Amino acid sequence: MSGAEKKEAPNAAPCGVVLVLEGLVLGACGCYGSWMQNFRPGTMHSAYSGLGAMVLLVICAGLTVSGHYKMYMMGVHLALLLQALFVLVFSMQSFRSYGVPAKADRFPLFVVMDIGSVFGLSLMIALKPKKKKEATA
Description:
With 137 residues, this protein is mainly alpha-helical. 69% of the residues lie in helices and 0% in strands.
């Protein structure tokens, strides 16, 4: 690709909104998990991981809507990878805490985070701008 032939980034605002909303859900769930345990030092990892996931998704959202093609591609694809990872992690956590009395308070939280991640990933796949087909003569 030459310098005169720069690719333009598509409008990815819907993807950016999905990422920010999913990040807010994960951040809120993480903080709620720590709040349920009265912010005891041993339970703060819930808030840290939720807020960390939120920060990562918001950064991806910023890259996605930056207007630069390479940044857009990095943001969308990194976000898709992170969302797939979140689905895997929260599914495993839900499975591992199901039926365990000591983890009964965390099970609904893992399920909500998993459903939010599945929903966010599904929306990202549905809303991701598609490649334009070039007209052939």
